[in-house]
User: Fold this.
Amino acid sequence: MTPVERLVAIHEIEQLKARYFYFYDNKDWDGWRDQVWAPEGRLIVGEMGRDIGPRDAMIEWVIGQSADQVSVHHGHTPIIEITSDTTATGLWAMEDRIYRSKEHPLNGDTAFVLGFGHYHEHYVKLEAGWRILSTKLTRLRTQYVKVF
Amino acid sequence: MDAVARLAAIEAIKIVKANYFLGVDTKDWDLLRREVFCEQSRFDLPEYDDASFVGGDAIVDFFRGAMSNWVTVHHGHMPIIEITSDTTATGIWAMEDRIYGSPGEDISSIHGFGHYHETYVKLAQGWRIGRFKLERLRVETGRLF
Assistant:
């Protein structure tokens, strides 16, 4: 891979993660499935002890988890490493806010969550472009607000 | 420096700063010493009695002493990076930080905003932070119970 190809790959992976956030927060599950994830994609949520995959089963689980909520996810200062022509790793700082309705509280009684942490990710380049192979979320701090 | 080398330098410097935030918030002091700082590094902190810390080891020792018992979250945004020669560069980063101390301390939570003003130097091992200074726009302090 030439230096230019490497910079282009880093840019494409940063755009991939931008689509991850955009489609997720807008609940565009078709976009999230087709333009973000590899078919073998896995979501690893350390705080919940969950390692969920492959993609289609994982997305079904996420849709259920995300029902009736507003979420805001922001990513910062990516560290992308291109490990071959078709593989890469990434680490993103993250901040998220989750707003729940009375009908669908988190953990039974939580209306609002403010969290901070990191995504640790693997990417693969398919015919269609770069896709997420796995993402693991670790938390620095999470605040829960109970109002019900 | 050709256009591609300049873009590669900007990308390398962004990763230095990303490793700075990662090392501080995960308390990975070796990462800071190895990938972020060098002997020439100098940290100026006007809000802290105009303190200056000279050398990567001194900066890391200050961080370790100040932050070991805290949860910290530092985010960087919108870098303005200028490559000034093959081996020097400057940068300005918008920043937001949150610090969570222990219940009972006089000030146990901080939510702040400001900018890092930085220089970078390219050594044999790659780009590293030279001199950097944190200037604040606004700091909100609180108590945790």
Summary: The domain at 3-145 of chain A is CATH 3.10.450.50 (Nuclear Transport Factor 2; Chain: A,). Chain A has a mean pLDDT of 95. Chain A touches chain B through 16 residues (CB under 8 Å). DSSP finds three helices and six strands in chain A.
